[in-house]
Amino acid sequence: MGEDIQKDVQRLYAEYVFLRQLAETLNRNLTLLNNLLAEIRVTQEAIKEIEKISESNDVIVSIGGMVFLKTRLPSRDCVLINIGSNVVVEKSYEEALEYLRNREENLKTELERTNNSYIQVLNRMRQLEQLLRQLSEKGRR
Questions:
Q1: pLDDT by residue (tens digit) across 50-69?
Q2: What is the mean pLDDT of residues 74-95?
Q3: Residue 114's closest CA among 40, 11, 37?
Q4: How many CB atoms lie within 10 A of CB 100?
Q5: 3-class state of residue 71 by DSSP
Q6: Is the pLDDT of residue 97 over 80?
Q7: Which of 34, 67, 83, 140 could serve as a FRET partner for 40 with CA atoms 20 to 30 Å apart?
Q8: The pTM is what?
Q9: Strand pairing partners for 80?
Q10: Pairwise pLDDT comparison (136 vs 68), residue with the higher score
Q11: What is the mean pLDDT of residues 82-110?
């Protein structure tokens, strides 16, 4: 294999390895974004259902680890939302739903952007695979 071809192969392979790592990261981000979107949708539905509960009805609340509490809602007019940096704000049900709708739209935009980047990376990886095969065949001659 000629020295120029060998340098090209090394350069293309280094790019391919970088892109493979980037693709793995983007794929993990896509999974995370999809999970966040699903969580927001479940939360929106939960808020809508809570609005329908009368004050005399008990509710079951998960406290983690498959453990639940049976309780009554002490306040039916607001929810607490963590807006980041351990800052929690009180919002009405409608304000909370609006906040979640905005968050959902932002996540959808980020999901689309990340998916487009992922597709571009995969396409470039395919190009590199083809180039590496061609250079390998050229080097054998």
A1: 888 777 778 888 888 999 99
A2: 88
A3: 37
A4: 19
A5: strand
A6: yes
A7: 67
A8: 0.80
A9: 90
A10: 68
A11: 95
* Cα(118)–Cα(127) distance, integer angstroms: 14
What Å distances lie between residue 53 and 44, 73, 106, CA to CA?
A: 15, 9, 30
Beta bridge partners of 69: 61
Q: Mean pLDDT throughout 91-114?
A: 96
CATH classification at residue 111: 1.10.287.370
**Mean pLDDT value across residues 100-127:** 98
Domain containing residue 97: 3-140
Tell me whether residue 123 is exposed, middle or buried, using C-beta atoms within 10 angstroms of its C-beta: 0 to 12, 13 to 18, 19 or more: exposed
Picking from 52, 31, 44, the residue whose alpha carbon sits closest to that of residue 105 is 44
Beta partners for residue 67, in sequence order: 64
- Positive or negative, the Cα torsion across 45, 51, 53, 55? positive
* Domains contained in the chain, number: 1
DSSP states along 13-35: HHHHHHHHHHHHHHHHHHHHHHH
